[in-house]
Amino acid sequence: MPSSHDKDEPRDVDENKNPHAKDELESKGDTKEGAEDDGDEEDEDDDDDENEDDEDDDEDDDEDDDGEDDDEDEEDDEPRLKYARLTQHLAPVYRNGDATSAFLVAGDKMIVGTHNGNIHVVQLPVFQSLRVYHAHSASVTSISISPFPPPLPTDKAGSPQHLAPQIAPSNASARVDSSPAASRKPRERAPIPKTPSNDIYIATSSMDGNVCVQSLVDMKDVQLRNFARPVQTVALSPEFKADRTYLSGGLAGQLILTVGGGPGRSTSTTTGTAAAAASGWLGSMGIGSNTGKDTILHSGEGTISTIKWSLSGKYVVWLNEHGIKIMRSKLHLENGDAEDAWKRVGHIDRPQTEEWDTMASVWKGRVEWIDERAVESDESEQGALDKPRSVAAERLNEQVILGKAGIERLVVGWGGTIWIIHVHPGGVGVGRHVGEKTIGRAEIVKILRMDCIISGISLYTQNLLLVLAYCLPEDDEDEDDPRVSPTKGHTSQPSTGSARSEPSGGIKRRQNNQPPELRLIDLNSQAEADKDGLSVSRFERLTSGDYHLGVLPARNAASAVASTKGALDALAGLGSDMWNAAINPRSLFSSGASIRSKESGDDGSLIAGSTAGTIRPGTSRGGSLTVHPALAKPGAKVFIHSPYDCILATRRDLGDHLGWLMERQQYQRAWELLDEHPEIVTTIEKANETVSQTPSKQQGGSEDVYDDESVADSTTRNVYSSVEQEKRRIGELWIQELIEENDWASAGMVCGKVITTPDRWEKWVWTFAGAKKFDEITSCIPTEPMHPRIPTTIYEVVLGHYLQTDKLRFRELLARWPTELFDIKTVTTALENQLNYRDVREDSIDDGEKGRDWRIVMESLAQLHEANGRQHEALKCYIKLHDADSAFRLIRDNHLADAVADDIPSFIGLRVSPEDLSQMTEQDLEHATSEAITLLVDEAQHGLLRPEIVVEQLQAQELHLYTYFYFRGLWKGEGIREHMGGNVDRLMMDSQSLVDGFADLAVHLFATYDRALLMQFLKTSVSYAFEKAVQECERFSYYDELVYLYSKTGQMKRALYLIIDRLKDVSKAIEFAKEQDDPDLWEDLLNYSMDKPSFIRGLLEQVGTSINPITLVRRIPEGLEIEGLREGLTHMMKEHEIQYSISSGVARVLRSEVAAAQNELRSGQRKAIKFEVVVQSVHHIDVEVKDVPTDPDKPEVTATVEHDHRVPEPGHCARCHEPFTEYEMETLVGYACGHVFHVSHLLELLHGGKKVDVDLGNGIEQGSRYSIGMKVMKARLLKDKVRGGCPICHPNEK
């Protein structure tokens, strides 16, 4: 351990030169003094933080109310960042009144140094303490790690599944052995798995003059080197694991390069002591132990406050009281350039002002090397809603990075000045430096002046600079409350411990330091894009050096989550699901599995033996391991650290935007945002859920814990309702706001958009009704039934209101709202009361219109009766209203014609007004009565209203035209609806048969009004009287109808003479004669026509071949002048010539076809048939495979007689396929096609498998075998049995 003389040396500062310098130095002393307060007081402060925060919130609310009028006109812009306090996750850091003094965050590690010299290594994002060790006896001034940033874990190194069992026994022992004796025993150290992210070295410097370099995974690999003066900063080489090199500097003003050195204590060779000199001399001779070598690279320019290696390791930047220095390191140098190592590349002087002369040694410079690949694009291009970059944007960013290859960008914040520096690589010079070789050069790109002291700096996006600003205390004594931040109206919470953080002794003095501010600076315009005051505990006594800024780049946003997988799997025994959930937070909250660390005992006693001091493994104190929601979100993570607080800043997402809108009561924008992005509610719910404890083995196996299917289904079902509930809540706040502004119309429209449940509809309708604002809400009430339904009382109240005040609006609503929304009986009663109490009358004048309200009430009543199934009452209302359309529709749809059977004429004339009857034509009457006639016809066809009733009433009032319309409808089937197939014909016949009972009347009406229909009726019906029909036709001189009637009764001559005498139509007479085809009728026609030249010419032209033309010509009287005789004779001769030509042509074709068939027959009969006989050897055996019958018991049933489709071979029977032999005894029959059969097989095939007696006179043949007569007789007998062609070639002729 460092000796007691290694204390912080006093600083000589001229207080009169800069008054702020004294305040800041004293404040630093107060900070350390506060860090060494009693632990009990610190615990009490922590316990009371929440209550004090609540009280301060109330005070802030009061102050906001007081200043509301002043800020009313100022537009409050939404901040870009969201803040979350992480102090409660770092409780072990502040134990025993300790306070932090140094801070570093990189990859998945957060490393904190305290004023008591403790180092805490915390695993992100679950804030699991990996290692806590006591490295120094005074305040830690800086922290450095190697490599930086630490690599992400890989699957090859340190598999978590293999590492977890190694620490399980220690955890188990801590749980089981909880006796007091066991708690006093030193607890076994839990090893940290050696994963790539854990295999790092941590270097810390301190005011005690020591530099401690500790391996995170190997507690024995630790170096503690004493430099005899307070060390302000230390920086490990990026390749420290290989070269054991680091740089340090402090109040001595020396930039010291330390190389080598093994584990253990050592003293720097630059201290000037005899021991150090002897150690270095013996070590160089190889006699002493290897304690390393120190080289002073630079000195004499005052305190060195900051040292930092570039990300590539090629350059080192450090700050002293004179300015900024950049040098080339020894890394990545070629062999020929080894002499360039540790040569200066550039120097930038600090501002030469009186204030800088005083404070250069006090202000701590902040340095950040920019990782071009990790910096996000500008928010204006990417958007502020956490949308991922497009592929094109990623490619463009890669091109920009490649274009800047070799150039490293550096951002320096020191005092109130910001430098943006580009460090260019070395090479061959150009211009006036041609031929010269340079090791690099530094170029100042931009310098910014700030009105504050910079406590931290980094590049947030390509165009936004992130600055942690410390505002100088205000000298105005009138401003007593430092809690109000001057930034955009954002208020900082008061210090939670300021009341008890006063120094324990000395003069009580007022401390009015301002809280820090986090600013975003636009590099293009050099203007502040955003500024937020931060709520930091005890900010009154803190100075710029007490604050630290750390940024996890957006590209590695998930890295801090993912890299914890290996280490925490081993430390907490967690499964892989937690890390999948941490990287993808949706899986965490959509699963039924919860995450919590295993139980562990309390912190054990300090373990001695390390050369760096007391080291103990981090524990979780039995608490649950939770992933902070802000760390699980994408985007860069900004950590702001103070001695008593840690704050996380992240980019605001849609959920934060929604909350911001709600805080400012901008409910309309909030609702529209949620409507467009319903996933916001799901994200908020997941962020607010408490991560529960992981079930133990007794509670269930892994199958129960990670069975996500049912949980996912339930989540999917609940998301919609959760979104809708939140939308309704915000929507109702929006409605309430509009009502308070007396904008009822807009409130009603909003109701229609945001209210989706019946209970809320009931609430808001009653609200509007109570304020008499029916017009504003009525049009927005749902017109479709909901589930569950809105109470019918709501609709009934609205209808009742408009029934009393605005009947036009009542009719509109009744037509718009389905009847299932309200109780029909209730509304019907209200309408009937209007009629019964004569609130409306038929003769009343309403807005200049007679009976308007009465008609509205009656129409509404008819509609409700019809909807309620009371068609008769509805029909009465329609009749009272003279609403023919509705009445006809009701009768037609419900077959209510019996309701009007007592007065058919009035029903038919429902559309015919008595005033216009005398002026209406037949067509007008037909159109006016068509619907009623069609309805009566339809009822008659259904047998509901017989035609006798209709005809009787119409004839009684001599309404013959109506009767004609009725008969015509029945005859044409106007009431028949479309049917399929033959049903239409049958229904037509049934409908026409209804007219047969009134056939004579129908003949009279059809003859009077429709002659075409008369002829159709005469040809179709047989029910009319012939004499009556003839009389009607003679009365109207309907000769065509008379001709039909005479011909129907056999009076052909009378009909013919009627055509000739009355019609004088020779064509019709000839056509009539042709139809009858009666020679006597032709004779009568010729006799009658011989003295009429026009008829003779018509006969010559049209008679054709029906009669002999010679007979016709001879009958023409001599000397009779006939006009067109030549043309008529020519036409007749042409017709006969054409007829003769056609007949002779047909005869020639027939003769040729017959001759061809005869020739074919003779040729076939003369053709010889070849019979091939195959002579087989004596030992030849024909083998034939036959199918086994399916029914062995009935082979005759299963035997087939069909041809088996085998191709007949020459010399074989075409049926049995047996070969013919030269000794064949059975007669063979051959066809011209070449198929040959045994005669028995042929007959069997021709007769369907039946056996046929083959008797061809064989007995006679035996006596005279070669007799010609016997052959002829045999062929004749065979011909009788075998007819047709070959049964194989012509199977259909069998």
Note down, in words, how this protein is organized.
This protein is α+β, with helices and mostly antiparallel strands. The protein contains 49 helices and 34 strands. The chain has a five-stranded antiparallel β-sheet with strand order 2-3-4-5-28. Strands 6-7-8-9-13 form a five-stranded mixed β-sheet. Strands 1-30-29-27 form a four-stranded antiparallel β-sheet, with no helix packed on it. Strand 29 (about 635-640) and strand 30 form a beta hairpin. The longest helix is centred in the last third of the chain and has 42 residues, at about 1125-1165. It is elongated, with a radius of gyration of 58 Å. Mean pLDDT is about 75; it is low at about 1-75, about 155-185, about 380-390, about 475-510, about 560-625, about 690-720, about 1195-1200 and about 1260-1265.
In short, what is this structure?
It is built from 49 helices and 34 strands.
% residues in beta strands: 15-25%
Main β-sheet: number of strands, strand sense, barrel status?
Answer: 5 strands, antiparallel
- Multimer state: single chain
Shape, per Cα inertia axes? elongated
What is the gyration radius calculated from CA atoms? Answer: 58 Å
Class of secondary structure makeup: alpha+beta
Strand order of the largest sheet: 2-3-4-5-28
Average the pLDDT over all residues and give the rounded result: 74
Q: Care to count the β-strands?
A: 34
Helix segment count?
Answer: 49
Helix content: 40-55%
